[in-house]
Amino acid sequence: MAKGRINIGDEVGTIATVRRRVTEDRISVSILTEFPHSIIDKTSTVKKGQSIELTGDVTHIDGDLGTVNLGLPVTVNMDTLRLVTSFVPPKRKART
Questions:
Q1: Among 45, 48, 60, 73, fewest CB within 10 Å belongs to which?
Q2: pTM for the complete prediction?
Q3: pLDDT at 3
Q4: String of b and e for 3-25 (b: at least 16 CB within 10 Å)?
Q5: Residue 9 to residue 47: CA distance in whole angstroms
Q6: Torsion sign across C-alpha atoms 62, 68, 69, 71
Q7: Which residues, at least 6 apart from 9, have a Cβ–Cβ distance to it below 8 Å?
Q8: Is residue 93 part of a domain?
């Protein structure tokens, strides 16, 4: 789905499933794998089994796998990523 369109620096989104609430401000999520990740979630009242979208920047691409920085680097299949915002390099100032 997203293979070929996503480059390093792009902001992407991926779906995660809530496993449980760890503390008042932390939840455990499963990001398309069974390996759990803990993320900070102070504002919402998500429940177990609910799907949420996590966004982050692509830091590395290796074939069909991409590493996304979601507070910690997470490697996922490129087909599971959705492009949110393309990276646009900063413009140089013209000399006058």
A1: 45
A2: 0.77
A3: 47
A4: eeebeeebebbbbbebbeeeeee
A5: 32
A6: negative
A7: 57, 58, 87
A8: no
